[in-house]
Amino acid sequence: MSVGVCAAALAAALTAPAEAAPAGAAPAPTTGKQTPHWQLKDSGTDVRFRGLAAVSRRAAWVAGSKGTVLRTTDGGAHWRTVSPPGAAELEFRDIEAFDARRAVVLAIGEGEASRVLRTDDGGATWTESFRNTDAKAFYDCLTFFDRRHGLAMGDPVDGTFRILSTSDGGRSWKMLPGAGMPAAQDGEAGFAAGGQCLVTSGPRDAWLATGGGAHARVLHSADRGQTWTAADTPIPAGDPARGVFALAFRDRTHGIAVGGDYRADQASPRAAAVSGDAGRTWTTAAQPPPAYRSGVTWLPHTGSAALAVGPTGTDLTTDGGRTWKTVDTGSYDTVDCTPDRGCWASGEKGRVARLE
Asked: What does 15-71 look like in DSSP terms, one character per residue?
């Protein structure tokens, strides 16, 4: 499949009738004779945005280094700095938004550097709802099943991954018992690379991505994080820089995993895998992305199209993750799409883009 054919397929995916679109969703964008492409939006900063939460084609949040959080409500034409006060020393790696006014952001790091904050007024004010006090713990990602129930995950402590749970939209968190978590491999951890090492689909299913151990694994919970099962993936591991970096499930059955080796001078063969059984088994993509990828998302209303991003480009699949073709060579760390076909990407040097 040529890049031109991929672009045409992407155009078809973005402009196909959206019978499944919710009431009130914006109409599909008109592409005319232009093929879909990333259009950079001036964020006004040069920080790295590894956290991204797409709300719609007009509204999105990004979070990154130096405690920076930005928000747009006009499709990226203007960005408002809504960073929490006193957060300049924090490293934000994940943000989850319920709408244009309510969001939860995760700061990563050892000990008290790992924190969760929430805003209910578009970032005008923030409330810290969790601060890690265990010097051995390091939190990587968070996710929500709905507006109330969510999880956050941390690297293994005493041999098991740490899982936090919230039932009030991230206003408070509790540690879940570790008895339902499989033992971690030596050196195994999550990657806080693009906010997609912990994802959900539906009201109860969650998946957790790992690397660094002998095998790159995906852990699955069907009961909101109480118990987990682990499955090996074919994505290379065996090194602290290798493993599964991001996951995307379009329903509780069909998933895509991407990753590889994040070092620029190292090859990343078998950088993508697919699952058709809720993550119990994984198969190497027949034609994977050509390099390490840190973000992945399903395109809305297609059932088989998805985008993966990384420092060396964006890849498109139109067959559920089995084959991939590069459609852009710009650097991005993470990607997210909304039901009204608002697809956003963000990354280094203040890069934020929307698919046009």
From this structure: HS--TTSPTTPPPPPP-TTSPP-EEEE--S------EEEE-SSS-EEEE-STT-EEE
Find the largest Cα–Cα distance for the chain.
57
Check pLDDT > 90 for residue 29: no
Structure tokens at 58: 């007009």
pLDDT in tens, 233-242: 999 999 999 9
At 93, give phi and psi (nearest 5°): -125, -10
What six digits make up the tokens of 94?
């994940």
Could you report the per-residue pLDDT of 157-166, keeping only the tens digit for each? 999 999 999 9
Give yes or no for a contact between 122 and 143, defined as CB atoms under 8 angstroms apart: no
Other CB atoms closer than 10 Å to residue 182's CB: what's the count?
14
* Secondary structure of 84-126 in HEC code, one letter for each residue: CCCCCCCEEEEEEECCCCCEEEEEECEHHHCEEEEECCCCCCC
Q: Give the phi and the psi of residue 349 in degrees, each rounded to 5.
A: 55, 35
What pTM, to 2 d.p., does this model score? 0.91
Residue bearing tokens 């934000």: 92
- Residue 203, judged by CB atoms within 10 A of its CB (0-12, 13-18, 19+), counts as exposed
- CA–CA distance, 15 with 8 (Å, rounded to integer): 11
Residue type, 183: A
